[in-house]
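User: Thanks for the earlier help. One more: Methionine aminopeptidase. Can you show the sequence and predicted structure together?

Assistant: Of course, both are below.
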Amino acid sequence: MSAKVNVKTVADIEKMRQGGKKLAEIRRSLESAIKPGIAASEIDALADKLIEKAGCKPSFKMVSGYCWSTCVNVNEGVVHGIPKKEIVFADGDLVSVDVGVYYRGYHTDTSTSVIAGKAKNGQLSFLATGRNALKKGILAARIGNKVGDISEAIESSLKKANLSPIRALVGHGIGKELHEAPYIPCFVSNSLDESLKIKEGWTLAIEVMYTQGKPDLVLEEDNWTIRTKDAKISGLFEETVAVIQNGPIILTK
């Protein structure tokens, strides 16, 4: 990841808005398809079809060594889950889907978590907290604020509900590259990137990754899937956002 934050022009942001709108429609279709009995591989196949139909390319297939259009995680899965045919959703599973597209020279990236079938005790409030934390983080992405203000907004929202932000993974800048500067943690880490002042023209993939338990993680044998060490459920919410004069605008909607 470059240390320099790439500032986008109005024309650049418009291209990303167009791609982001297409991506949001794809995300909604994937959400609707998540049901008990459906395999993660079916979600990925649907994403392939929808991305091609939208005239886009799958961003994740442009990542070295990754061969899928989506990352799909279930329950304690946090990120980078390979959408395997062996993963079949059961009633009450918490399913997280991460998907990105490349359109007119720019990437957009989004994630969501939903329940397959009927929700279990506390799952809906767990997901509502994650969505709210993302909303608070996006609102903090304003000219003159610091990157750390986004992190603080996310962390404080999660901690009020006694939930733990994931500490080993971060949100990121986005544009011509899928992963650009700056790093955007879900917690206040006092890193160099967090001291950066947010400027007009920044485009950010603001990502909330959190768990009911401890934030310690384990990498599975496939060398991609990351899950919580204590097997507590994890949630994932992400939008691509542009910082403009009037404040942040969500491009993936």
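User: Great, one quick takeaway?

Assistant: The domain at 10-250 is CATH 3.90.230.10 (Creatine Amidinohydrolase).
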